[in-house]
Amino acid sequence: MTATAAAPSTGAGRGAGPAIDASGITVRYGDVLALEDVGLTVGPGRICGLLGTNGSGKSTLFSTLIGLIRPRTGRVLLHGRTPDQARKAGLVAYVPQSERIDNAFPVRVRDVVMMGRYGHMGPMRRPRRADREAVDQALDRTGLTDLAHRQIGALSGGQRKRAFVARGIAQGARVFLLDEPFAGVDKGSEGTIIDVMRRMRDDGRTLLVSTHDLAGVGDFCDEAVLLQRRVIARGTPGEVLTPQRLAEAFGLGRPDPAEEA
Ligand SMILES: Nc1ncnc2c1ncn2[C@@H]1O[C@H](COP(=O)(O)OP(=O)(O)OP(=O)(O)O)[C@@H](O)[C@H]1O
């Protein structure tokens, strides 16, 4: 499946073309075909669920969207910019499954969120009032104001995820790529993360969220993509999460050495 063609644009707000526009993406790791002709278009202010079994290519797609992997074929535009341009402009934030943070590392939540402002500061990285205000707003948006002075290592997994989302908000990112935000968090934290995501969408930000939580997808996603090396289905959660399509995705999830060659 390929993406809807759209004229590149330089804007990053609502109504300025797709926030995420990828087409014809093929990625190989040696002999392993990880993504094949993948297309994805997500409009501004939308939450899109990225669904697929282990090994279906979700992390590879994230890495491609953020420019860490150069696809063999295909094209990615984020708000009309290449991944490198979008990253340099701070337009995109990637929240991986587990941040490599040493729990004993003495850094407060507020410091982590302030890191999102580094691109806005001079070489001395001395925060100005605008930086402090952006951090306060991001902490508020993610419900972390009361934990701002807590050590990052003293947070729960869900709170830590919110701290990294807050860093992206402070940075001014418009596109968020969230890799398994619910992994290892309890139901209460999951609800809080969903509230945060909805608020971000209401602010006009765009979220691509990989998840195994198929039951919850209809609750918080406007649209969904079912990935199994290729795009098997995309549309509303109701259109995508049909028993037949899920069976297809999970059936295709079994290794097929002949196809991987
Ligand atoms: N560095 C690598 N070298 C070789 N093969 C890789 C590499 N990274 C991923 N793969 C393979 O590419 C395919 C897609 O992997 P990817 O990590 O993108 O899947 P995923 O959907 O994110 O999986 P999970 O849900 O387990 O995180 C898999 O077959 C995987 O084994």
UniProtKB/TrEMBL annotation:
InterPro entries, sorted: AAA+_ATPase (IPR003593), ABC_transporter-like_ATP-bd (IPR003439), ABC_transporter-like_CS (IPR017871), Metal_Ion_Import_ABC (IPR050153), P-loop_NTPase (IPR027417)
PROSITE patterns linked to this entry: ABC_TRANSPORTER_1 (PS00211), ABC_TRANSPORTER_2 (PS50893)
Pfam families noted in UniProt: ABC_tran
Domain ABC transporter: 20-254
GO terms for MF: ATP binding; ATP hydrolysis activity
Keywords for this protein: ATP-binding, Nucleotide-binding, Transport
Family note: Belongs to the ABC transporter superfamily.
Protein name as it appears in the record: Manganese transport system ATP-binding protein
Organism: Nocardiopsis composta
Organism phylogeny: Bacteria, Bacillati, Actinomycetota, Actinomycetes, Streptosporangiales
